[in-house]
Amino acid sequence: MLFNGLLDLPWWGFVLVALGLTHVTIAAVTIFLHRNQAHRSLDLHPLVAHFFRLWLWLTTGMVTKEWAAIHRKHHAKCETADDPHSPQVHGINRVLWLGVVLYVKESHHPETMERYGHGTPDDWMERNVYARHSVYGLWLTGAVNVALFGLVPGLLILLTQIVWIPFWAAGVINGVGHFWGYRSWDVPAPDASTNIVPWGILIGGEELHNNHHAHPASAKFSLKWYEFDLGWAYVCVLEALGLATVKKVAPTPRFSAPKPVCDHQTLQAVIANRYDVLARYGASLKRTYRQELERLGHWSHEAESLKPVKRYFARMQQLSEAERGRLAEALKNSKALATAIAMRDELAALWARSSASREQLLQQLQDWCHKAENSGVAPLVDFSRRLRRYA
Description:
Oligomer: single chain
Number of strands: 4
Number of domains: 2
């Protein structure tokens, strides 16, 4: 009686059912809550959107407005004391294992809901069922599970459904995704987002968290040729069926013949592709670094003192004051590398000057290219010429 339901399955059948049901929930979170509601990177057909709302009510009890508001606040206040779930502030263990507690705590802040929860569903079903009776969906799902699979398997599947999102989304993505992994894009400090792995399958593409923070309005999270975003694959299927419309993806750099001097189109392209610019600049820095090691002699004292610099290349915008001090000390033996790093900061400051006019920004970009091409640092000269090719 404890194991008998309407469906008589072997033990591995129950496991497959649990994994299948939780994967639908992952798809609902990444496609509906994240890409559609929080960032408006795609539009969904009303039937698809309402299916996801119903499914999330049945399997998680999460309210759309709360999820979108908390996530938007996370982006706006990333890694600060106001970030609802930063492991840099709260500690990795607290976010990983108790991330759902931080989520629930933030959901009770009316100011967060009012400021960041705009544009989310506010129809009769949302007000009177999904938001007002959020826990009833779990009770209904539990009853259906027991009827279909028996008491013990049904409750175990329900327990899996209940803990799946709090652990993988609230814990792993919000915790590990800001603590450990690789960074393709050196997003501005204090944002510490990382890509956990390059293949976003288990959590529907959310594993590519650094990519998302670099381009939050993009419906596609995979940006390198070796990365895979399963959520994006689902979005493409929905779009092919006429059930979704992609509004924005990360810009793809285009290049033309190098212009004699940067113009307004070059400026616009450089700012739009700023993370690609910084990634390519990182490759230029590594080339300068290798040339300096060869110049100094790989095993010389000067070269040995320069070698610790390499570990800073992937996160130049994240360095603490102490790290910048150690970096400056190491660069005393390499004027070329010191120049290249200083000019990287000058280039990154270009798109941070929100108060400057287009003419002022263009002049600053032209001055930067002139300075780079007269620096005497070969990789910097080559990079500046490539910069003038952005179209």
